[in-house]
Amino acid sequence: MSGVNGAAHGNQLSLDRDLVPPFTALQAMAESSRCLYCYEAACVTACPTAIDIPGFIRKIGTGNVKGAARTILDANIMGGTCARACPTEVLCEQACVRNKAEAEPVAIGRLQRYATDALFKAGVQPFTRQAPTGKHVAVVGGGPAGLACAHRLALLGHEVTVFEARAKAGGLNEYGLAAYKMVGDFAQREVDFILSLGGISVKTGMALGRDVTLAQLRQDFDAVFLGVGLAGINTLGVAGEDLAGVADAVDVIAALRQRTAPPVAVAGPLAGRRVVVIGGGNTAVDAAIQSLCAGAAEVTMAYRRGTAEMGATGHEQDLARTQGVVLRTWLAPREILGAGGAVSGIVLERMAMDAGRLVGTGETVTIPCDVVLKAVGQKLAPGGLDGLALAGGRIQVDETLATSLPGVYAGGDCIKSGEDLTVQSVADGKAAAFAIDAYLKA
Amino acid sequence: MADLRATIAGITSPNPFWLASAPPTDKEYNIVRAFKAGWGGVVWKTLGEDPPVVNVSSRYGALLDSNRALIGFNNIELITDRPLEVNLREIAAVKKAWPDRAVVVSLMAVMTEAAWAGLARRIEPTGADGLELNFGCPHGMCERGMGSAIGQVPEMVEQVTRWVKNATRLPVIVKLTPNITNVLWSAEAAKRGGADAVSLINTINSIASVDLDAMAPTPTVGGKGTHGGYCGPAVKPIALNMVAEIVRNPDTRGLPISGIGGIGTWRDAAEFLALGCGSVQVCTAAMTHGFRIVEDMIDGLSAWMDEKGYRTLADFQGRAVPNVVNWNDLNMNFVTKAKIDKDLCIDCGRCHIACEDTSHQAIRIIPAEGKRLFEVVDEECVGCNLCAHVCPVPDCITMHEQETGRPYLTWPEHPQNPARVLPPKAAE
Ligand SMILES: Cc1cc2nc3c(=O)[nH]c(=O)nc-3n(C[C@H](O)[C@H](O)[C@H](O)COP(=O)(O)OP(=O)(O)OC[C@H]3O[C@@H](n4cnc5c(N)ncnc54)[C@H](O)[C@@H]3O)c2cc1C
Ligand SMILES: Cc1cc2nc3c(=O)[nH]c(=O)nc-3n(C[C@H](O)[C@H](O)[C@H](O)COP(=O)(O)O)c2cc1C
Ligand code: SF4
Ligand code: SF4
Ligand code: SF4
């Protein structure tokens, strides 16, 4: 990578510094002038929330920066987070026609951040709600899908109550995204901005299946939206997984984001310790890099297939490498070794493709380490979802995002829509809100 | 290596690139730097009678593109604000030190023979190569009866030119103002008055912008603004046209021309030369980038001339003139159509929306895997070139002459012309 989107801008990452620094006014002006204001632009098609990208970039160019932010937020209420966290290299910027013209896309993400930052800084509420409808919708899960749905429903004049299991709303924006993408308290500022519209009340510490049931919600509300994400964790299924020093990557990331001590199982801070991360997705990359940020002595990422099959984009793999993560491929975990109840190493088997199938070669490799982080995927936590049809391990929905139960809709990571991304979850939440609106008005 | 030597009204210079009368030529210091950089000549910043004028603070306005590139420039400055004696001394010193360069001196005075002849006689002994009469300044000086106040009245142009010609043996160049309805009237007047050459254009009356906070024109002088002179890249097309008008007008044909207006590159200069100019003058481009731009002007022009096989400026000077005709002389049977190179196309859709919304609905989009295909509908395309101008990729949209087999046919001869004049043959 090069140019304005270059990986880490040559800096060593830290937990409190932006991976990609914000644009100055001069940079934003220069970059906005690179946009060709395409007609039916390819970048818009590539954005799951279909932000009018040429439209907002032109507004930056004419000095109408708050108007640009409104254009963004109108399509994607989490335009601020998406500007920071979207893998633009596989979304809008990948489609930008400037790639073909000069092998360097317009820095859409950074321009989006420039505009939304300006609006948040000005403290402007750009939206007004439609007349009250008297309808009340329950939203389960205060992540991107839930909040996007709640915001759109509130705009359309409905009342919304959000039930959130954790102490803070924001979902993985607050507990999952890498610290260097969401510097400072941006996730909470964005939640506050969304709620400042009015019409949305959030009940934290309220979990579906524990504090409230779906049947109850269906009875008490006119419709229900489920945006519960993937709260379940896949296990490795190997010996030694219960040793001190083995943890779920998402828990460690959440702790780093909350600036609290890492989960007990890791047994102490990461500083000075040797970490092995199992997995090849973005979560694995995030866990690996943030472990280094937290002072880990060495970090190895071990993935059972090749780099081409990794879930992490090429850009993110490069980022990991430039930060000093050792990427090792074709290695599957077989046993976590311990000494005195704590991790001392991990045994991995060398893998290979045989007639299209991934097979073990019998050859093993042992990596001495103190910490093993598991990042082999999240899954739907079934609690509270009784009566709902599932498909492929997720909640089954039709094209309007309606579940098998009348009046119950779902979106975000808990359904299979597109990639498991913030922007896709926002798109789902918005689409579901329109579907719920139509259902309520039918 | 091409020979770039230029001669105009008997004034010679090692290359045709002169600095126009303006701040870059205000004093010895600047001009020595300019000559060191390679400029072929200068027109000294306009001299006037003492006492010198006084300028205001806040003097320039600008039109910038979205990259902050300067495309238009405007000023409310007056003529030199230094004593005449100082200027004359420096002119003599510069000419002595740089004998091969053209040193022309611009002057301006009130509408009396004594004033104009007196100034001319004081300049002559400096050794300057020629005089340029400033009939152009469109702000400030005209309110005192000078500059464009003279340049806009052909009789006065003729009169002053004659006064100066009678007072000096130096070649006299008359600098024309574009702030008139017909540049030929002043060019013809200059010729009648005995001008050895004309130079054009001076700046165009303008308001650069309105400051929406101050609610006043820019440049803003303590909350107020005034109209100023416009120049820079944006005025080049206007200057080219006025040059072309003079060069093909029977009454002024052959009158040497020093071209001015928006020249910043060798290519701009070559265009003025192709329209018959003998030298070119530059102001805004030098004020934007400094004197060093002349290096590429010289290098680029000679490289292009070598490539084309032109050994001297005369080899291509005026070559484009025969092809500048009136609309009525254009061939109505000529047909050109746009063609899109689908390999170069980057799929931005600009050609489509431009033609669809504002022209002839002649570019259709064919949905395809990965990228859309843009195709010109020949039956609808009128050959307006709009798409080729809005396409961001050079040479992606090109215009192609269509074989029609039909003869050259002008509008006066056209069957659809209600006032058709039958060609001589058919009329018989
Ligand atoms: C470590 C990590 C890094 C990531 N990095 C990126 C990235 O850089 N860019 C990107 O685009 N995407 C990234 N993602 C993916 C992205 O975070 C998710 O796709 C997105 O957050 C999904 O939104 P959601 O609203 O569906 O679910 P979530 O964000 O998971 O939100 C679900 C919410 O529901 C709550 N909840 C769960 N169960 C219940 C219940 N039973 N009752 C009540 N509340 C409940 C949860 O507490 C949570 O607040 C990352 C994911 C992870 C794990
Ligand atoms: C700041 C400024 C001052 C000028 N002063 C004079 C002047 O004193 N006498 C004159 O004949 N022209 C003057 N001009 C006009 C220039 O000589 C020239 O005709 C005009 O700028 C067009 O050329 P350009 O597009 O290269 O700038 C001035 C122009 C500028 C920008
Ligand atoms: S594809 Fe690129 S150039 Fe075209 S509108 Fe989108 S950002 Fe602008
Ligand atoms: S040349 Fe004009 S009419 Fe023809 S396709 Fe292009 S824009 Fe349309
Ligand atoms: S303007 Fe040029 S690059 Fe853009 S779609 Fe048309 S032909 Fe292709």
Write up this protein:
- The complex is a heterodimer of chains A (442) and B (428).
- Chain A contains 16 helices and 17 strands.
- In chain A, the strands form five sheets. A five-stranded parallel sheet of chain A has the order 3-2-1-4-17, with helices on both faces. Chain A has a five-stranded parallel sheet with strand order 6-13-7-8-9.
- In chain A, strand 8, helix 15 (314-323) and strand 9 (326-328) form a beta-alpha-beta unit.
- Chain A is an alpha/beta fold and 442 residues long.
- Chain A is globular.
- In chain A, helix 5 (79-85) runs antiparallel to helix 8.
- Chain A has helices spanning 25-32, 42-46, 53-61, 65-75, 79-85, 92-95, 98-102, 108-122, 144-155, 172-175, 186-195, 214-220, 249-258, 282-293, 314-323, 422-441; strands at residues 136-140, 159-164, 200-204, 223-226, 232-233, 246-248, 274-278, 298-302, 326-328, 331-339, 342-354, 357-368, 371-374, 378-379, 390-391, 394-395, 408-410.
- Chain B folds into two domains: 6-323, Alpha-Beta Barrel (TIM Barrel); 329-413, Alpha-Beta Plaits.
- Chain B contains 13 helices and 20 strands.
- Chain B has helices spanning 28-37, 84-97, 113-123, 148-151, 154-167, 183-192, 236-247, 266-274, 284-289, 294-308, 350-358, 386-390, 424-427, and strands spanning 6-8, 11-13, 17-19, 41-47, 60-64, 70-75, 102-107, 130-134, 172-175, 197-200, 204-206, 209-211, 216-218, 228-231, 257-260, 279-282, 336-340, 363-366, 373-376, 397-401.
- Chain B starts with 5 loop residues before the first strand and ends with a helix.
- The model of chain B has no long low-confidence stretch (mean pLDDT 95).
- The chains are: A alpha/beta (442), B alpha/beta (428).
- The A-B interface holds A 29-30, 32-33, 36-42, 61, 97-98, 100-101 and B 65-68, 346-350, 352-353, 371, 392-393.
- Chain B: Residues 407-428 are annotated as: Disordered.
- Chain B: Its EC number is 1.3.1.1.
- Chain B: This is dihydrouracil dehydrogenase (NAD(+)).
- Chain B: It holds the Pfam family DHO_dh.
- Chain B: It comes from Nitrospirillum amazonense.
